[in-house]
Amino acid sequence: MPKQEIVTFRLHRKGVWLIVIGGLFVAVLIFAAGYLTASWRSNAISDSRFPVPGKAVAPALPKTPAIPAPPPPGNRMPEIGNRASAPAAATLTLRVGAYATEEEAKAAMQTLTAAGLEPALVTAPTSGGSTLYLLHAGSYPSRASAAAAVKELGKRGIAAAVVPETKSHL
């Protein structure tokens, strides 16, 4: 019959200290990863649907009631860029450009005017303290009529986005 050996497991003082220090090191790394991830997420989320504790949330913009727009007659393009003929209750406009300098914005404004639009130059302050120069065109009572105008501009090679109308014109 083979002889059986008894194996005992002993930890030396050094081994115990290495396990304790290693465990603390891993705990600190996990804490740091969670902290950095949470701070990154709180900076990335700026939507009011996801409130972040300790951060002020901007009030939501009031929803404008949808007013059905009549379809344009025939192949005629909807009114774009004509602020004089826009209804008084218009709340939407088309953003056709955003520029860092006023000179770039005015050059683009001339190009859009040559394309048959009547763009308006609007200033918007940035969080860095500089000014952004936005080109807006048209005034629309509903998102549907503004979307139809965006589609028509897209056919002409002009990119646009529907945005709320602002009053800080130059």
- Elements, N to C (H/E): HEHEEHE
Order of strands across the widest beta sheet? 2-3-1-4
Main beta-sheet strand count, sense and barrel state: 4 strands, antiparallel
Derived from helix and strand composition plus strand pairing, the structural class reads alpha+beta
Helicity, as a percent range = 25-40%
Ends: how far apart?
103 Å
Rg to the nearest angstrom? 31 Å
Beta-strand segment tally:
4
Account of the protein in words:
- The chain has 170 residues and is α+β, with helices and mostly antiparallel strands.
- The protein has helices at residues 13-44, 102-114, 143-155, and strands at 92-99, 119-125, 131-140, 161-164.
- Strands 2-3-1-4 form a 4-stranded antiparallel sheet, covered by helices on one side.
- The radius of gyration is 31 Å and the shape is rod-shaped.
- The protein starts with 12 loop residues before the first helix and ends in a 6-residue tail after the last strand.
- The mean pLDDT is 76.
